[in-house]
Amino acid sequence: MNIAVIGAGAVGQLTASFLAESGVSVTLVARRLGQVKELNAKNLTRVNVDGTKTVQKVASTTKLEELPQQDLIVIAVKYVQLQELYEQLSSLSSTVPLLFMQNGLAHFEEALRLPQKNIAFCSVSFGAQMIDQSTVQHRGIGPCKIAIERGDSDVFNKLLQLRNSLYPIELVANAEQMLFEKAVFNCLINPLTAILQVKNGELVTNKQAFLLMQTIYQELTDAFKGIEQTIPFFKVINLCEKTASNTSSMLADRMQGRKSEIDTIVGVILEKALASGHNLPTLRTLYHQVLAIEESGERR
Ligand SMILES: NC(=O)C1=CN([C@@H]2O[C@H](COP(=O)(O)OP(=O)(O)OC[C@H]3O[C@@H](n4cnc5c(N)ncnc54)[C@H](OP(=O)(O)O)[C@@H]3O)[C@@H](O)[C@H]2O)C=CC1
Ligand SMILES: CC(C)(CO)C(=O)C(=O)O
């Protein structure tokens, strides 16, 4: 099977590494020639959760359009970076299946405007952090849930067969619901970690951070009736603990002075809550704090 992974960042490298380990012929599509050279020269190293290292040979290129037809294209760039990719994706064959790996909800409708017949979304609950251009650290094992929104399930069933206990893959039924539920987890973890500049685990061990997380949970469960059934608070604690040493993707954005995914994660959830008259004051405050940090241009 040939799979191209667009975006050689934390999630792209981790996914590429596990796919290559399962025998898939993987091409990582990066946008910087320097990174492609480094990946080709050094191969791709994964630092596992137990500290061991796994090195995989993957191909790397900047030229997506020059690749032969792939069995699957995985899109592992951030939401903000998707905007400049859509045009390129729309010029690819309409028969190539696409799998979107972004957190948040805003890309759902956008991706479905693409001409491809087979489109799926993914929600991942592992931790991943880039160490350098060709090394990724796996910081917490968690499921990779895939929901097919359009087209058939052939290629995704093949992915299920590749399952590795360190990178468990499962198929779920409803893409929008899956993305919504993941966005709720991210609302509880990402803005707090980014503002406080703490790793995920500290949201549980720091009493004040924990209190804030509980307050936001209360706001979310008041606004979205019944979500405490699918997302009981202990699952939020579990996710923080499993990814305790991870720098959340939003904190990673802050550390690198990049625009975060605050709008596609928190912004969309705030809008949905407001539609039923819920203002979520604590979460809204965090939303504006993250935007204020970005506007201040720190570290740029
Ligand atoms: N990291 C984590 O633990 C988790 C992340 N996620 C989600 O996964 C998604 C990806 O996040 P993450 O991997 O952390 O982000 P990263 O910033 O680490 O990776 C994104 C990568 O995409 C590359 N890129 C951007 N535009 C293009 C393009 N046009 N062509 C090729 N490559 C491109 C970037 O390159 P460059 O370096 O040149 O900018 C970067 O290497 C996000 O939606 C995030 O919220 C979900 C769960 C966990
Ligand atoms: C799973 C988690 C919380 C891992 O940090 C994540 O989704 C992120 O960082 O965006």
TrEMBL record:
Enzyme class name: oxidoreductase
Domain Ketopantoate reductase N-terminal, chain residue ranges per copy: 3-147
Stretches assigned to the Ketopantoate reductase C-terminal domain: 175-293
Superkingdom, taxonomy of origin: Bacteria
Reaction(s) the record says it catalyses: (R)-pantoate + NADP(+) = 2-dehydropantoate + NADPH + H(+)
Pathway linked to the protein: Cofactor biosynthesis; (R)-pantothenate biosynthesis; (R)-pantoate from 3-methyl-2-oxobutanoate: step 2/2
Keyword terms of this UniProt record: NADP, Oxidoreductase, Pantothenate biosynthesis
UniProt KW NADP keyword: yes
Gene3D superfamilies: N-(1-d-carboxylethyl)-l-norvaline Dehydrogenase, domain 2 (1.10.1040.10), NAD(P)-binding Rossmann-like Domain (3.40.50.720)
Family membership noted in the UniProt record: Belongs to the ketopantoate reductase family.
Function: Catalyzes the NADPH-dependent reduction of ketopantoate into pantoic acid.
NCBIfam families per UniProt: apbA_panE (TIGR00745)
Listed name of the protein: 2-dehydropantoate 2-reductase
